[in-house]
Design a protein that fits this description.
Layout lengths: L1 H13 L1 H22 L13 H12 L6 E8 L6 H15 L4 E4 L2 H67 L5 H62 L12 E8 L8 H11 L8 E4 L1 H4 L8 H18 L2 H24 L9 H30 L4 H28 L7 H32 L6 H10 L7 H7 L1 H16 L7 E2 L11 H13 L7 E7 L6 H16 L4 E9 L5 E8 L6 H21 L1 E6 L1 H35 L3 H26 L15 E2 L2 H29 L4 H29 L8 H31 L8 H6 L8 H14 L1
Parallel strand pairs: 5-10
Antiparallel strand pairs: 1-3, 1-4, 2-3, 6-8, 6-9, 7-8
Helix pairs in contact: 1-12, 1-13, 2-10, 2-13, 4-7, 5-6, 6-18, 9-10, 9-23, 10-11, 10-13, 11-12, 11-13, 11-14, 11-23, 12-13, 12-20, 12-22, 15-23, 15-24, 16-21, 16-24, 20-21, 20-22, 21-22, 21-24, 22-23, 22-24, 23-24
Length: 857
């Protein structure tokens, strides 16, 4: 590898214009792709197959409007809303509802009137039904009287017919003996009686039909009254479920509404949210202050803000102090910017086909800048040292690329392994983060071993002004007494001190609590935080993150009353669970097989009590479902947090096994030692626990929160631990390679084990110190990033590098290696025979170059 990089470095230096133009073309392609193919990034954390995701997907399919993206808006005034202000708010919500991309927005004052008047309406309805029942009973009594009259008339008519039949029989028996005139008169009388009876029967038939119609009307009225009573009973039960729920605060100074968007979850359409804000801001003319939740105002179109730029500026200052030349200081920065531009640009170009969270490019930017500057700096530093020793520019560039570039390549490989292995967690968004960041690191390595030599060729000897050569040679005196020498004099004190410091820093880790970010973590002066705070103070913290319950019926029904009864039965059981403040049934599927509920917890979505409530609901979902003949499921922010944490806990052992295992093998190849890789891993554990402790102390427990801009302490981002483990492991191995490779190089060249520790340390310490400060500065700039999720990541990485570089690698490592002496480089013979010699420090290459120079002379 060293020989290959040596040739690559020489070629890049000789063909500097071709190399630079190639990189310019690549960065132009990446920028073009980012500008034309990128899509809005997302803040949605989805895990296909997880409980919360399955429930959310089912809800999206069955009741799309219930799974729609939601943003919350608050309206506030000082002394209560006037009629004009209420009308203005109603007009704004109506205009929002008319926007393309918006499902709807409700008028909070109209909603509050409905909530306040629901019980009065129910009482009025009951009074109306009571009056209707009285009328029904009166009608029933009248109908019974009519029935009695009808039955009496029917009996009288039947008696008349019997009498008529008897007269007819008598006439037929005596008609032959009657005179014709008398017989004709008798028959006429019978016919008249028959006609009278027929008319009576018709009248009775009409009366019976009228009576039956009256009975049908009474039955319909009875059914209507019964349905009304059922509806009122259900309305009363619903009112009890939402008793105390408000859309306008009790003091009348704050109102809230929810805007439903057509985009489901994740990042809302920025054009639509911009229109919503533009319309809402017109209320300022009416004296109404409008604030929006993070979903509406999140601007993740830019991943680089002022705070991040400050970190880069600090890095430039460090480079100037270290290198003493503006041209030399600008070279690592330029190389890093090119690498980041290509890596992040390419990732944004892929955002149209690969779903990415807002953290993904920010993490790639953070790592790409840090390692890009450091990797280029290591090659530059080696080149300057060789120039100071009198080597020619082209030869020095080639050798620096073959030696320091080789170490850079192997160091980058450890970072890439740690990042790419995030895909093993089985969590897609975390895997994408790892792949994008790993790809950016690969680009940074390629830029370091190709673009850096080309730029060094342009600078020539100007990279090292003549007046600096003597000073540089003196500062890099191999055997001068420095920090490593002092550590070597008191190794046990150094070891105990490092373990004690990292142990104390790790104490808060025992209180680690994981969660997902909410509005409380936004900046205090942001509209998102004001929205969160106003809702918490006026409507209850639970309104900031309701739990979504979904019930799937085993036997779907189109009977609306039966469906509503089932929905209310389930809602009442949910309300009976400790910690539930309100339950709002808010959706039914068209086919009648799915019911949706909003369960309002008493506390915020990230509170421990809410986590306990969700666990209770999840544990009881089978029992609750069986009691009502449904299949219950729950989703929402807190449910997602629990699922993500559980899946990460399951995946972490495999992840650590792969990352640590592969890196140990890589370090075994690099250093050809058993103890050095083990020491690197133990030191990494100290770094991780100290970093976790610092993150928990600042972001969860609130220590020094004002200093680091933490508005409200809360749980730590769910995937932060595994992300820190992966990134810090890779970076820790970086410093292990850069520092210990110098020690091994000195030992390979014949120095005593203890002497090689000091000599190798002194050769690398200055540049490693600068590299660590640069990395801390770049990461530290993200502590004040505008993306709330990236802040603890930036802090954890900055603090982790601080501990790892200065305590673990530059103090613990030389102390332990000094105690081990020659044993530090021990390797079993059988293993020594089968391991390939990767020559990471480029000793073989350096000897070859020196031999060639001697032959030339």
């Amino acid at each position: 590898m060293a020989s290959l990089l040596h040739r690559l470095g020489r070629w890049s230096a000789q063909h500097r214009w071709a190399t630079v133009v190639t990189w310019l073309v690549v960065i132009a392609l990446a920028a073009t792709g980012a500008a034309t193919l990128s899509e809005p990034l997302s803040d949605e954390f989805s895990i296909p197959g997880s409980r919360f995701q399955v429930v959310l997907d089912d809800l999206q399919e069955e009741i799309p409007e219930a799974a729609a993206g939601i943003g919350t808006v608050t309206f506030s005034v000082e002394d209560g809303f006037t009629d004009e202000q209420r009308a203005a708010v109603a007009d704004v919500t109506e205009r929002w509802s008319a926007l393309d991309g918006v499902v709807g927005a409700t008028d909070p004052f109209a909603t509050q009137e409905q909530l306040d008047g629901s019980l009065e309406e129910i009482e009025a309805g009951r009074a109306e039904l009571a009056a209707g029942r009285e009328q029904l009973e009166a009608g029933r009594a009248e109908l019974e009287a009519g029935r009695e009259q009808l039955e009496a008339a029917e009996a009288e008519l039947a008696a008349g017919r019997e009498q008529l039949e008897a007269q007819r029989a008598e006439l037929e028996a005596s008609i032959d003996m009657m005179p014709p005139a008398m017989a004709a008169g008798a028959e006429q009388e019978l016919a008249a009686a028959e006609a009278e009876l027929a008319a009576g029967e018709e009248q009775l038939a009409a009366s019976r039909a009228e009576l039956e119609a009256g009975e049908e009307e009474l039955a319909a009225a009875e059914a209507e009254i019964a349905a009304g009573e059922t509806q009122l009973d259900q309305g009363e039960r619903l009112a009890e479920l939402t008793d105390g729920l408000r859309q306008v605060s009790e003091n009348g100074t704050v109102a809230m509404t929810q805007v439903q968007f057509e985009s489901a979850g994740g990042q809302l359409d920025p054009e639509v949210t911009a229109e919503v804000q533009e319309i809402g801001d017109t209320l300022a003319d009416e004296g109404v202050e409008v604030n929006y939740s993070a979903e509406i105002v999140s601007d993740i179109s830019s991943i680089l803000g002022p705070a991040e730029v400050v970190g880069v500026v600090v890095a430039v200052v460090v480079l100037l102090v270290l290198l003493g030349s503006l041209l030399a200081a600008g070279l690592p920065l330029l190389t890093a910017l090119v690498g980041v531009g290509v890596g992040v640009g390419a990732s944004l170009a892929l955002s149209g086909v690969v779903e990415m969270t807002s953290v993904t490019p920010a993490l790639a930017l953070m790592l790409g800048m840090a390692v890009g500057i450091d990797y280029s700096l290591f090659i530059l530093n080696r080149h300057r040292m060789q120039l100071a020793d009198g080597m020619s520019v082209r030869d020095s560039i080639a050798l620096a690329t073959g030696t320091a570039g080789n170490a850079v390549t192997f160091a980058g490989a450890t970072v890439v392994i740690a990042l790419a292995a995030l895909g093993l967690t089985g969590i897609p968004f975390l895997g994408v983060m790892g792949y994008v960041a790993a790809g950016t690191v690969v680009v940074a390595v390629l830029a370091s071993v190709t673009l850096t030599p080309a730029l060094l060729s342009f600078l020539g000897e100007r990279v090292l002004p003549a007046k600096q050569r003597t000073r540089l040679a003196r500062k890099n005196g191999a055997d001068s007494r420095g920090w490593a020498y002092k550590v070597q004099q008191h190794p046990w004190l150094a070891i105990i001190g490092v373990v004690a410091i990292t142990g104390l820093l790790a104490i808060p880790t025992t209180q680690l609590r994981l969660g997902l970010p909410d509005g409380s973590q936004e900046a205090a002066d942001s509209t998102a935080y004001r929205t969160y705070d106003l809702i918490r103070d006026n409507f209850g913290a639970g309104a900031n993150g309701p739990i979504i319950g979904v019930a799937t019926l085993e036997e779907p029904t189109q009977d609306e009353a039966a469906l509503t009864a089932t929905q209310l039965d389930i809602a009442e059981d949910l309300l009976a669970v400790d910690g539930v403040q309100y339950v709002v049934p808010f959706g039914t599927s068209e086919d009648g097989d799915t019911l949706a509920f909003q369960v309002m917890p008493a506390d915020g979505p990230s509170e421990e009590s809410t986590v306990a409530l969700v666990n209770t609901l999840l544990d009881s979902e089978d029992e609750l479902g069986a009691a009502h003949g449904v299949q219950m499921g729950f989703t929402g922010q807190t449910v997602a947090n629990i699922d993500i944490s559980d899946q990460l806990a399951d995946a972490l052992p495999l992840y650590l096994l792969v990352v640590v295992g592969l890196s140990l093998v890589l370090l075994l190849l690099v250093f050809r030692s058993i103890w050095v890789p083990l020491l690197a891993s133990v030191g990494f554990l100290l770094t991780v626990v100290a970093s976790f402790g610092a993150v928990v102390g600042v972001y969860q427990l609130g220590f020094l929160s004002d200093l680091f801009g933490v508005n409200e302490a809360g749980p730590i981002l769910s995937f932060l631990p595994v992300l820190l483990i992966g990134v810090l492991f890779g970076l820790a191995m970086d410093y292990q390679v850069f520092l210990v490779s110098g020690m091994r190089e000195a030992h390979v060249h014949g120095a005593d084990a203890r002497v090689s520790v000091v000599r190798g340390f002194n050769q690398s310490a200055r540049v490693v110190t600068a590299a660590a400060i640069i990395m801390i500065s770049v990461f530290g700039g993200f502590i004040f990033a505008h993306l709330a999720m990236i802040r603890p990541i930036g802090f954890g990485l900055a603090f982790g590098v601080l501990v790892d570089a200065f305590l673990v690698r530059m103090t613990l490592t030389p102390a332990v290696l000094s105690l081990l002496g020659e044993k530090a480089w021990w390797l079993p013979r059988w293993l020594d025979k089968i391991l390939p010699n990767v020559d990471v420090e480029g000793a073989k290459l350096e000897r070859q170059v020196v031999a060639e120079e001697r032959e030339t002379v």
